[in-house]
Amino acid sequence: MKLIYSGKTKDVYQTEEGNMLLKFKDDVTGENGVFDPGANTVGLTMEGAGKAGLKLTTLFFQKLNKKGIPNHYIDSDIEEATMTVIPATQFGEGLEVICRYKAVGSFLRRYGKYATEGQKLDGFVEITLKDDERQDPPINEDALKMLGILTKEEYQVIKNLTAKIAEMVKEELIKREIELYDIKLEFGKDPDGNIILIDEISGGNMRAYKEGQYIPPMELERIVVSS
Q1: Extended strands (E) in the chain
Q2: What are the UniProt keywords, alphabetically (predicted)?
Q3: Nearest-CA neighbor of 167 among 100, 221, 215?
Q4: DSSP code of 193?
Q5: Torsion over CA of 168, 127, 207 and 124, rounded to 10 degrees?
Q6: Cα-based torsion angle of the residue sequence 200, 201, 203, 205 in order, rounded to the nearest 10 degrees
Q7: Average pLDDT value for residue range 201-212
Q8: CB count in 10 Å sphere of residue 118
């Protein structure tokens, strides 16, 4: 296989069949040894984090397939910490789409003058550019169109898909008495030009709480997958 890209938490390979293989690492994003799904740097390494993230990702992508929500998932190998996916083209140099149910993380850092920690946000969807140098700046619908990154129609498709996917994850967590505060998703286009969910759905790209206490990624996987 040919290594296409080495990212913070995954390596991406091209298979002989023309698909892509994602190799999940034990690295997680954060700063100074503290996990933060919104961080732009690898903050720490946790043994088993790659497999844990893949287990949760596999569970959620399989549920998305049953609901007919378009995504890139083909299959996964938990022991090898790999997931085979269909190839997809990202928008611009990459977008991150966040659905927020509570005010925490970067939202609170930006708007703390008006928002209080844990304030209800009613599934607010926002898009940021994947740009480590500029700390992933938020961007609105008009700017995305003017810069040629998304059309108005593509923006609405992504926003609607984000709301559906986030709600599915939220409902699954509620079954375990866990509350979803926010989740970060990524989208791309498949070879036919259809917008699909890409990347992963794991504890590494969401904040989940139980009885007001934050649940680390590996603990979240243990609770959700085993129950």
Answers
A1: 2-6, 10-14, 20-24, 27-31, 34-35, 42-45, 73-77, 82-85, 89-90, 95-102, 120-129, 138-139, 179-189, 195-198, 206-210, 213-214
A2: ATP-binding, Ligase, Nucleotide-binding, Purine biosynthesis
A3: 100
A4: S
A5: -60
A6: 70
A7: 95
A8: 13
89, 95 Cβ separation under 8 angstroms: no
Q: Is 59 left (phi over 0), alpha (psi -120 to 50) or beta?
A: alpha
**20, 87 in Cβ contact below 8 A?**
yes
pLDDT at 43: 65
Selection from 196, 227, 224, 211 nearest residue 53 by Cα: 224
Provide the 3-class DSSP secondary structure of residue 180. Answer: strand
Which three-class secondary structure state does DSSP give residue 63? helix
Does the predicted model carry a pTM greater than 0.70?
A: yes
50, two tokens:
């790659």
> What pLDDT sits at residue 28?
75
What is the Cα 50 distance to its own chain's centre? 14
DSSP letter string over 37-59? TT-SSEEEE-TTHHHHHHHHHHH
214's tokens: 């934050």
